[in-house]
Amino acid sequence: MKITKVETVYDGFYKLRKLTVQDGDQQLTRERFEPGRAVAALVYDTNAQQYVFVRQFRIGAEAEVEEIPAGMLDKQGEAPEQALRREIEEELGYAEVHHLEHIVDMYPSPGGNAEQIGVYYAEVSQQTSAGGGAEGENENISLVRLSWEEMVTHPWRDAKTLIAVQWAQLNKV
């Protein structure tokens, strides 16, 4: 298969592109949702000995979802680790990350979605603000603190969070 043409169908908060794909003698049209690159982290507060998650309304689920903190790379050329530290401070209120470990770069749903997410493990120890999201982003985030036992038995519905929690179980962090 070879992509022969890409057209922008919608360019708003997210992008939607129409692709023309050559498959042998056939020419196919496919749509691709392009939210961009994101980062997310399983965050462990070493002082409280708890994992820190967020709960926020997600439009795709049409409900509040508990998940690891995440965000988009905002600027062209922004390093994933830099974006992740920013998101941890905005969403959780921790200004300093003591340990950051890359878990995986993944496509959560590559059938028609071009989003890429870098998933990490982060350790923090001193909350310096309440968190809750950056002003002006209308995130309405609340923090959820869980023990190891609560985390591994929680009924997670978010794919990046499932991956991070399973990684923690395999690596005993």
UniProtKB/TrEMBL annotation:
Domain of life, per lineage: Bacteria
Residue positions binding Mg(2+): A70, E87, E91, E139
Domain Nudix hydrolase: 34-169
Keywords annotated in UniProt: Hydrolase, Magnesium, Metal-binding
Motif window: Nudix box: 71-94
PROSITE patterns linked: NUDIX
One biological process term in Gene Ontology: ribose phosphate metabolic process
GO CC list: cytosol
GO molecular function, one term: metal ion binding
Pfam families the UniProt entry points to: NUDIX
Cofactor dependence: Mg(2+)
Reactions that this protein is recorded to catalyse: GDP-alpha-D-mannose + H2O = alpha-D-mannose 1-phosphate + GMP + 2 H(+)
Annotated family: Belongs to the Nudix hydrolase family. NudK subfamily.
PANTHER family (alphabetical): NUDIX HYDROLASE DOMAIN-CONTAINING PROTEIN, UDP/ADP-SUGAR PYROPHOSPHATASE
The protein's assembly and partners: Homodimer.
Protein name: GDP-mannose pyrophosphatase
